Amino acid sequence: MPRDDHGLAPLYLALREEAQGLCDSVAAFVDEAEESSEFDVRLQDAFRKSGLADLLVRGRDGGRFEEIDPLAICVVREVLMESSAQLDALFSLQGIGSYALGLAGTDGQRARWLPGVASGELLPAMALTEPGVGSDLKAITTAVATDGDDLVLTGTKSFISDASVASFFTVLAREGDGHSLVLVPAGSPGLTVEVGPELIAAHCIGDVHFDGVRVPAAEGRLGGAGEGFALVLATLTVFRASVAGAAVGLAQAALTEAVRHTRSREAFGRPLARHGPVATLLADSAMEVEMARLLAYRAAGKAREGAEGSLDYSSMAKVAATEAAGRVVDRCVQVMGRFGLVRGSRIERLYRQARPMRIYEGATEVLRLGIARSLTEQID
Ligand SMILES: Cc1cc2nc3c(=O)[nH]c(=O)nc-3n(C[C@H](O)[C@H](O)[C@H](O)COP(=O)(O)OP(=O)(O)OC[C@H]3O[C@@H](n4cnc5c(N)ncnc54)[C@H](O)[C@@H]3O)c2cc1C
Protein backbone atom coordinates (compact mmCIF):
# COMPACT_ATOMS: atom_id res chain seq x y z
CA MET A 1 0.00 0.00 0.00
CA PRO A 2 1.26 3.51 -0.68
CA ARG A 3 2.41 5.21 2.48
CA ASP A 4 0.04 8.05 3.23
CA ASP A 5 0.77 10.80 5.71
CA HIS A 6 -1.65 9.53 8.38
CA GLY A 7 -2.26 13.12 9.39
CA LEU A 8 1.33 13.53 10.54
CA ALA A 9 2.81 17.04 10.60
CA PRO A 10 5.63 17.80 8.11
CA LEU A 11 8.23 17.38 10.88
CA TYR A 12 7.31 13.68 11.26
CA LEU A 13 7.09 13.08 7.54
CA ALA A 14 10.61 14.49 7.22
CA LEU A 15 11.76 12.15 10.01
CA ARG A 16 10.30 9.22 8.10
CA GLU A 17 12.42 10.22 5.12
CA GLU A 18 15.48 10.56 7.30
CA ALA A 19 14.95 7.10 8.78
CA GLN A 20 14.38 5.67 5.31
CA GLY A 21 17.72 7.20 4.28
CA LEU A 22 19.43 5.23 7.05
CA CYS A 23 17.71 2.01 5.92
CA ASP A 24 18.77 2.60 2.32
CA SER A 25 22.37 3.26 3.37
CA VAL A 26 22.73 -0.24 4.90
CA ALA A 27 20.90 -2.18 2.17
CA ALA A 28 24.09 -3.90 0.98
CA PHE A 29 24.72 -5.75 4.25
CA VAL A 30 21.56 -5.53 6.33
CA ASP A 31 20.37 -9.08 5.56
CA GLU A 32 23.59 -10.53 6.92
CA ALA A 33 23.37 -8.35 10.03
CA GLU A 34 19.76 -9.40 10.66
CA GLU A 35 20.79 -13.01 11.25
CA SER A 36 23.68 -12.30 13.61
CA SER A 37 23.56 -11.82 17.38
CA GLU A 38 26.96 -10.16 17.21
CA PHE A 39 26.84 -6.40 17.50
CA ASP A 40 27.30 -5.14 13.94
CA VAL A 41 29.76 -2.24 13.80
CA ARG A 42 28.79 -1.41 10.21
CA LEU A 43 25.19 -0.82 11.27
CA GLN A 44 26.37 1.12 14.30
CA ASP A 45 28.56 3.28 12.10
CA ALA A 46 25.71 4.01 9.69
CA PHE A 47 23.41 4.74 12.62
CA ARG A 48 25.91 7.14 14.14
CA LYS A 49 26.36 8.95 10.83
CA SER A 50 22.59 9.22 10.31
CA GLY A 51 22.35 11.61 13.27
CA LEU A 52 19.09 9.98 14.43
CA ALA A 53 20.45 9.25 17.91
CA ASP A 54 20.01 12.91 18.81
CA LEU A 55 16.23 12.38 18.84
CA LEU A 56 16.72 10.42 22.07
CA VAL A 57 18.34 13.17 24.12
CA ARG A 58 16.97 16.53 25.23
CA GLY A 59 18.31 19.72 23.63
CA ARG A 60 20.06 20.88 26.80
CA ASP A 61 22.18 17.70 26.72
CA GLY A 62 23.07 17.71 23.01
CA GLY A 63 19.82 16.38 21.55
CA ARG A 64 17.90 17.69 18.56
CA PHE A 65 14.69 18.98 20.11
CA GLU A 66 14.18 20.84 23.37
CA GLU A 67 12.19 17.87 24.70
CA ILE A 68 12.34 14.22 23.64
CA ASP A 69 9.36 13.65 21.34
CA PRO A 70 7.73 10.19 21.74
CA LEU A 71 5.85 10.56 18.45
CA ALA A 72 9.14 11.19 16.63
CA ILE A 73 10.57 8.02 18.22
CA CYS A 74 7.46 6.02 17.29
CA VAL A 75 7.48 7.16 13.67
CA VAL A 76 11.21 6.52 13.23
CA ARG A 77 10.94 3.03 14.76
CA GLU A 78 8.10 2.19 12.38
CA VAL A 79 10.30 2.97 9.39
CA LEU A 80 13.44 1.29 10.78
CA MET A 81 11.63 -1.90 11.78
CA GLU A 82 10.04 -2.15 8.35
CA SER A 83 13.60 -2.64 7.05
CA SER A 84 15.63 -4.02 9.93
CA ALA A 85 15.06 -5.21 13.49
CA GLN A 86 18.74 -4.55 14.22
CA LEU A 87 18.45 -0.88 13.21
CA ASP A 88 15.31 -0.60 15.30
CA ALA A 89 17.16 -2.07 18.29
CA LEU A 90 20.12 0.27 17.85
CA PHE A 91 17.86 3.29 17.79
CA SER A 92 15.47 2.34 20.60
CA LEU A 93 18.12 1.08 23.03
CA GLN A 94 19.91 4.39 22.72
CA GLY A 95 16.86 5.94 24.36
CA ILE A 96 15.68 3.20 26.74
CA GLY A 97 18.94 3.11 28.67
CA SER A 98 19.40 6.88 28.85
CA TYR A 99 15.92 8.31 29.35
CA ALA A 100 16.04 8.22 33.16
CA LEU A 101 19.47 9.85 33.10
CA GLY A 102 18.04 12.74 31.06
CA LEU A 103 15.12 13.08 33.48
CA ALA A 104 16.86 12.74 36.82
CA GLY A 105 20.61 12.99 36.27
CA THR A 106 22.63 15.76 37.83
CA ASP A 107 24.33 18.33 35.59
CA GLY A 108 27.58 16.37 36.01
CA GLN A 109 26.05 12.98 35.17
CA ARG A 110 24.25 14.34 32.12
CA ALA A 111 27.32 16.21 30.87
CA ARG A 112 29.47 13.09 31.17
CA TRP A 113 27.23 10.74 29.23
CA LEU A 114 24.42 12.32 27.23
CA PRO A 115 26.30 14.20 24.50
CA GLY A 116 27.95 10.87 23.61
CA VAL A 117 24.52 9.18 23.57
CA ALA A 118 23.17 11.93 21.30
CA SER A 119 26.03 11.49 18.86
CA GLY A 120 25.71 7.70 18.92
CA GLU A 121 29.25 7.24 20.28
CA LEU A 122 28.15 5.87 23.67
CA LEU A 123 25.72 2.99 24.07
CA PRO A 124 23.43 2.79 27.11
CA ALA A 125 21.78 -0.36 28.45
CA MET A 126 18.80 -0.73 30.77
CA ALA A 127 19.21 -3.52 33.33
CA LEU A 128 15.98 -4.53 35.06
CA THR A 129 15.45 -8.26 34.46
CA GLU A 130 17.18 -10.92 36.61
CA PRO A 131 17.62 -14.67 36.24
CA GLY A 132 14.73 -15.27 38.66
CA VAL A 133 12.63 -12.17 38.01
CA GLY A 134 11.08 -10.67 34.86
CA SER A 135 7.57 -9.27 34.99
CA ASP A 136 7.44 -9.01 38.78
CA LEU A 137 10.14 -6.34 39.04
CA LYS A 138 9.38 -5.56 42.67
CA ALA A 139 10.87 -8.98 43.50
CA ILE A 140 14.36 -8.18 42.19
CA THR A 141 17.23 -9.15 44.45
CA THR A 142 20.07 -6.99 43.06
CA ALA A 143 20.84 -4.63 45.93
CA VAL A 144 22.60 -1.32 46.38
CA ALA A 145 23.90 0.05 49.68
CA THR A 146 25.82 3.13 50.72
CA ASP A 147 29.35 2.67 52.03
CA GLY A 148 31.05 5.98 52.83
CA ASP A 149 30.94 8.09 49.67
CA ASP A 150 30.28 5.06 47.47
CA LEU A 151 27.34 2.98 46.39
CA VAL A 152 28.02 -0.75 46.36
CA LEU A 153 26.00 -2.89 43.93
CA THR A 154 25.61 -6.67 44.10
CA GLY A 155 23.49 -8.98 41.96
CA THR A 156 22.94 -10.32 38.44
CA LYS A 157 20.90 -8.87 35.59
CA SER A 158 19.78 -11.14 32.78
CA PHE A 159 18.74 -10.81 29.12
CA ILE A 160 20.21 -7.32 28.90
CA SER A 161 20.26 -5.95 25.37
CA ASP A 162 23.69 -4.81 24.20
CA ALA A 163 25.24 -6.02 27.49
CA SER A 164 28.59 -6.80 25.86
CA VAL A 165 28.95 -3.46 24.08
CA ALA A 166 27.22 -1.00 26.41
CA SER A 167 29.13 2.05 27.64
CA PHE A 168 27.05 2.25 30.81
CA PHE A 169 24.20 0.43 32.55
CA THR A 170 21.13 1.93 34.16
CA VAL A 171 20.47 -0.65 36.86
CA LEU A 172 17.33 -1.12 38.97
CA ALA A 173 18.32 -2.24 42.46
CA ARG A 174 16.71 -2.76 45.81
CA GLU A 175 17.74 -0.09 48.33
CA GLY A 176 16.35 -0.53 51.82
CA ASP A 177 12.55 -0.79 51.46
CA GLY A 178 12.52 0.85 48.04
CA HIS A 179 14.15 0.62 44.63
CA SER A 180 16.70 2.95 43.09
CA LEU A 181 18.30 3.39 39.69
CA VAL A 182 22.08 3.31 39.62
CA LEU A 183 24.28 4.31 36.69
CA VAL A 184 27.26 1.98 36.36
CA PRO A 185 30.01 2.57 33.76
CA ALA A 186 31.01 -0.50 31.75
CA GLY A 187 34.39 -1.80 32.82
CA SER A 188 33.84 -0.95 36.49
CA PRO A 189 35.80 -3.36 38.73
CA GLY A 190 33.51 -6.25 39.75
CA LEU A 191 31.30 -5.95 36.64
CA THR A 192 31.40 -8.90 34.25
CA VAL A 193 29.32 -9.74 31.20
CA GLU A 194 28.31 -13.18 29.96
CA VAL A 195 27.23 -13.23 26.32
CA GLY A 196 24.16 -15.06 25.01
CA PRO A 197 21.87 -16.97 24.70
CA GLU A 198 20.88 -17.17 21.01
CA LEU A 199 17.25 -16.11 20.56
CA ILE A 200 14.81 -17.10 17.82
CA ALA A 201 15.38 -13.66 16.32
CA ALA A 202 19.01 -12.54 16.45
CA HIS A 203 19.62 -9.99 19.19
CA CYS A 204 22.76 -8.93 21.04
CA ILE A 205 22.02 -9.93 24.63
CA GLY A 206 23.79 -11.01 27.79
CA ASP A 207 23.85 -11.33 31.57
CA VAL A 208 25.64 -8.75 33.71
CA HIS A 209 27.10 -9.65 37.09
CA PHE A 210 27.73 -6.96 39.69
CA ASP A 211 30.04 -8.32 42.37
CA GLY A 212 30.40 -5.53 44.93
CA VAL A 213 30.70 -2.90 42.18
CA ARG A 214 31.49 0.53 43.63
CA VAL A 215 30.43 3.82 42.11
CA PRO A 216 30.77 7.23 43.79
CA ALA A 217 27.30 8.05 45.17
CA ALA A 218 27.23 11.48 43.51
CA GLU A 219 27.87 9.93 40.08
CA GLY A 220 25.91 6.73 40.56
CA ARG A 221 22.34 7.15 41.76
CA LEU A 222 19.84 8.62 39.30
CA GLY A 223 17.35 10.74 41.21
CA GLY A 224 16.81 10.10 44.89
CA ALA A 225 16.90 6.82 46.78
CA GLY A 226 13.61 5.02 46.20
CA GLU A 227 12.78 6.85 42.95
CA GLY A 228 13.78 3.96 40.70
CA PHE A 229 10.32 2.70 39.81
CA ALA A 230 8.94 6.13 38.95
CA LEU A 231 11.85 6.61 36.54
CA VAL A 232 11.36 3.15 35.00
CA LEU A 233 7.64 3.86 34.47
CA ALA A 234 8.43 7.23 32.87
CA THR A 235 10.81 5.41 30.51
CA LEU A 236 8.22 2.75 29.67
CA THR A 237 5.51 5.33 28.96
CA VAL A 238 7.61 6.63 26.08
CA PHE A 239 9.17 3.40 24.86
CA ARG A 240 6.17 1.09 25.04
CA ALA A 241 4.34 3.41 22.66
CA SER A 242 7.35 3.19 20.37
CA VAL A 243 7.36 -0.64 20.47
CA ALA A 244 3.87 -0.27 19.01
CA GLY A 245 5.34 1.82 16.19
CA ALA A 246 7.98 -0.84 15.55
CA ALA A 247 5.32 -3.58 15.52
CA VAL A 248 3.38 -1.62 12.90
CA GLY A 249 6.52 -1.39 10.76
CA LEU A 250 7.09 -5.14 11.04
CA ALA A 251 3.47 -5.96 10.20
CA GLN A 252 3.55 -3.59 7.22
CA ALA A 253 6.70 -5.27 5.93
CA ALA A 254 5.06 -8.71 6.18
CA LEU A 255 1.92 -7.49 4.44
CA THR A 256 3.95 -5.97 1.62
CA GLU A 257 5.68 -9.34 1.09
CA ALA A 258 2.37 -11.19 1.10
CA VAL A 259 0.68 -8.77 -1.30
CA ARG A 260 3.55 -8.98 -3.79
CA HIS A 261 3.56 -12.77 -3.61
CA THR A 262 -0.19 -13.34 -3.87
CA ARG A 263 -0.56 -10.80 -6.67
CA SER A 264 1.99 -12.50 -8.86
CA ARG A 265 1.42 -16.19 -8.11
CA GLU A 266 -1.48 -17.92 -9.81
CA ALA A 267 -3.45 -20.94 -8.61
CA PHE A 268 -6.63 -22.36 -10.14
CA GLY A 269 -6.38 -19.83 -12.99
CA ARG A 270 -6.23 -16.65 -10.91
CA PRO A 271 -3.75 -14.75 -8.76
CA LEU A 272 -3.88 -16.01 -5.18
CA ALA A 273 -4.95 -12.53 -4.05
CA ARG A 274 -8.17 -12.86 -6.06
CA HIS A 275 -9.27 -15.97 -4.15
CA GLY A 276 -11.79 -14.94 -1.53
CA PRO A 277 -10.20 -16.46 1.58
CA VAL A 278 -6.74 -15.08 0.68
CA ALA A 279 -8.23 -11.65 -0.07
CA THR A 280 -9.94 -11.74 3.33
CA LEU A 281 -6.70 -12.52 5.10
CA LEU A 282 -4.97 -9.65 3.29
CA ALA A 283 -7.81 -7.22 3.94
CA ASP A 284 -8.05 -8.13 7.64
CA SER A 285 -4.31 -7.63 7.94
CA ALA A 286 -4.44 -4.21 6.26
CA MET A 287 -7.19 -3.15 8.67
CA GLU A 288 -5.28 -4.36 11.70
CA VAL A 289 -2.09 -2.61 10.63
CA GLU A 290 -3.97 0.64 10.15
CA MET A 291 -5.76 0.38 13.52
CA ALA A 292 -2.50 -0.41 15.28
CA ARG A 293 -0.77 2.52 13.60
CA LEU A 294 -3.45 4.97 14.66
CA LEU A 295 -3.35 3.76 18.27
CA ALA A 296 0.46 3.85 18.31
CA TYR A 297 0.48 7.47 17.12
CA ARG A 298 -2.25 8.39 19.60
CA ALA A 299 -0.37 6.80 22.52
CA ALA A 300 2.88 8.46 21.47
CA GLY A 301 1.07 11.80 21.21
CA LYS A 302 -0.33 11.32 24.71
CA ALA A 303 3.12 10.45 26.04
CA ARG A 304 4.44 13.64 24.42
CA GLU A 305 1.83 15.71 26.25
CA GLY A 306 2.66 13.84 29.47
CA ALA A 307 -1.12 13.42 29.70
CA GLU A 308 -2.75 11.65 32.62
CA GLY A 309 -3.18 7.96 31.85
CA SER A 310 -0.52 7.99 29.15
CA LEU A 311 1.16 4.85 30.54
CA ASP A 312 -2.13 2.99 30.04
CA TYR A 313 -2.34 4.26 26.47
CA SER A 314 1.23 3.17 25.81
CA SER A 315 0.43 -0.27 27.23
CA MET A 316 -2.74 -0.52 25.12
CA ALA A 317 -0.86 0.46 21.99
CA LYS A 318 1.94 -2.01 22.75
CA VAL A 319 -0.46 -4.91 23.33
CA ALA A 320 -2.71 -4.05 20.39
CA ALA A 321 0.12 -3.51 17.89
CA THR A 322 2.37 -6.42 18.88
CA GLU A 323 -0.55 -8.88 19.02
CA ALA A 324 -1.78 -7.55 15.65
CA ALA A 325 1.73 -7.94 14.21
CA GLY A 326 1.75 -11.57 15.41
CA ARG A 327 -1.57 -12.28 13.68
CA VAL A 328 -0.64 -10.39 10.51
CA VAL A 329 2.73 -12.07 10.01
CA ASP A 330 1.16 -15.47 10.67
CA ARG A 331 -1.50 -14.85 8.00
CA CYS A 332 1.16 -13.60 5.61
CA VAL A 333 3.17 -16.81 6.03
CA GLN A 334 -0.04 -18.76 5.40
CA VAL A 335 -0.94 -17.05 2.14
CA MET A 336 2.63 -17.45 0.90
CA GLY A 337 2.39 -21.23 1.34
CA ARG A 338 5.68 -23.10 1.31
CA PHE A 339 7.55 -19.93 0.27
CA GLY A 340 6.70 -18.44 3.67
CA LEU A 341 8.63 -21.22 5.37
CA VAL A 342 12.04 -20.87 3.76
CA ARG A 343 14.66 -20.27 6.42
CA GLY A 344 16.32 -16.87 5.96
CA SER A 345 13.62 -15.53 3.64
CA ARG A 346 12.28 -12.12 4.57
CA ILE A 347 8.85 -13.34 5.61
CA GLU A 348 10.24 -16.18 7.72
CA ARG A 349 12.56 -13.75 9.48
CA LEU A 350 9.71 -11.34 10.16
CA TYR A 351 7.73 -14.25 11.60
CA ARG A 352 10.53 -14.90 14.11
CA GLN A 353 11.16 -11.21 14.82
CA ALA A 354 7.51 -10.58 15.68
CA ARG A 355 7.52 -13.09 18.54
CA PRO A 356 9.70 -11.42 21.20
CA MET A 357 7.77 -8.15 20.88
CA ARG A 358 4.83 -9.64 22.79
CA ILE A 359 7.13 -10.42 25.73
CA TYR A 360 9.72 -7.68 26.20
CA GLU A 361 8.91 -4.31 27.80
CA GLY A 362 5.87 -5.87 29.44
CA ALA A 363 4.31 -9.17 28.38
CA THR A 364 0.81 -8.87 26.92
CA GLU A 365 -0.88 -10.61 29.85
CA VAL A 366 0.83 -8.40 32.42
CA LEU A 367 -0.03 -5.20 30.55
CA ARG A 368 -3.65 -6.32 30.22
CA LEU A 369 -3.82 -6.59 34.01
CA GLY A 370 -2.67 -2.97 34.37
CA ILE A 371 -5.07 -1.72 31.69
CA ALA A 372 -7.99 -3.53 33.32
CA ARG A 373 -7.01 -2.25 36.77
CA SER A 374 -7.10 1.36 35.56
CA LEU A 375 -10.39 0.72 33.80
CA THR A 376 -12.08 -0.56 36.91
CA GLU A 377 -10.80 2.45 38.85
CA GLN A 378 -11.93 4.99 36.24
CA ILE A 379 -15.53 3.90 35.64
CA ASP A 380 -18.03 4.91 38.38
C1 LIG B 1 14.73 -9.56 22.89
C2 LIG B 1 14.66 -9.23 24.36
C3 LIG B 1 15.39 -8.15 24.83
C4 LIG B 1 15.36 -7.85 26.20
N1 LIG B 1 16.10 -6.78 26.66
C5 LIG B 1 16.07 -6.48 27.97
C6 LIG B 1 16.85 -5.39 28.48
O1 LIG B 1 17.56 -4.71 27.73
N2 LIG B 1 16.80 -5.12 29.81
C7 LIG B 1 16.02 -5.84 30.66
O2 LIG B 1 16.00 -5.53 31.84
N3 LIG B 1 15.27 -6.89 30.22
C8 LIG B 1 15.28 -7.22 28.91
N4 LIG B 1 14.53 -8.29 28.44
C9 LIG B 1 13.76 -9.10 29.37
C10 LIG B 1 12.26 -8.77 29.30
O3 LIG B 1 12.04 -7.49 29.81
C11 LIG B 1 11.51 -9.87 30.05
O4 LIG B 1 11.57 -11.04 29.24
C12 LIG B 1 10.06 -9.50 30.32
O5 LIG B 1 9.97 -8.49 31.28
C13 LIG B 1 9.22 -10.70 30.82
O6 LIG B 1 9.85 -11.33 31.87
P1 LIG B 1 10.12 -12.93 31.81
O7 LIG B 1 10.64 -13.24 30.46
O8 LIG B 1 10.95 -13.28 32.98
O9 LIG B 1 8.71 -13.58 31.94
P2 LIG B 1 7.95 -14.00 33.30
O10 LIG B 1 7.85 -12.85 34.21
O11 LIG B 1 8.53 -15.27 33.80
O12 LIG B 1 6.51 -14.29 32.71
C14 LIG B 1 6.30 -15.38 31.78
C15 LIG B 1 4.92 -15.25 31.22
O13 LIG B 1 3.97 -15.43 32.27
C16 LIG B 1 2.85 -14.58 32.09
N5 LIG B 1 2.72 -13.73 33.28
C17 LIG B 1 3.69 -13.28 34.10
N6 LIG B 1 3.19 -12.55 35.10
C18 LIG B 1 1.85 -12.55 34.93
C19 LIG B 1 0.76 -11.95 35.61
N7 LIG B 1 0.94 -11.21 36.71
N8 LIG B 1 -0.49 -12.16 35.13
C20 LIG B 1 -0.70 -12.89 33.99
N9 LIG B 1 0.31 -13.48 33.31
C21 LIG B 1 1.55 -13.29 33.75
C22 LIG B 1 3.11 -13.81 30.78
O14 LIG B 1 2.49 -14.51 29.74
C23 LIG B 1 4.59 -13.89 30.61
O15 LIG B 1 4.99 -13.80 29.26
C24 LIG B 1 14.55 -8.62 27.09
C25 LIG B 1 13.82 -9.69 26.59
C26 LIG B 1 13.87 -10.01 25.24
C27 LIG B 1 13.07 -11.17 24.73
Describe the structure in brief.
By secondary structure, this protein is an alpha+beta fold.
Description:
By secondary structure, the chain is α+β, with helices and mostly antiparallel strands. It has three domains: 10-123, Orthogonal Bundle (Butyryl-Coa Dehydrogenase, subunit A, domain 1); 125-224, Butyryl-CoA Dehydrogenase, subunit A, domain 2; 229-378, Butyryl-CoA Dehydrogenase, subunit A, domain 3 (Up-down Bundle), CATH 1.20.140.10. Helix content is 52%, strand content 16%. The protein contains 13 helices and ten strands. The chain has helices spanning 10-25, 30-34, 41-50, 70-83, 85-96, 99-104, 107-118, 217-220, 228-264, 276-305, 310-335, 346-354, 364-378, and strands spanning 124-127, 143-147, 150-161, 168-175, 178-185, 191-195, 205-216, 221-222, 266-267, 270-271. The strands form three sheets. The protein has a four-stranded mixed β-sheet. Strands 2-3-7-6 form a four-stranded antiparallel β-sheet. A hairpin with a 2-residue loop joins strand 9 (266-267) and strand 10 (270-271). Helix 4 (70-83) packs antiparallel against helix 10 (276-305). It is globular, with a radius of gyration of 21 Å. The termini are far apart. The model has no long low-confidence stretch (mean pLDDT 96).
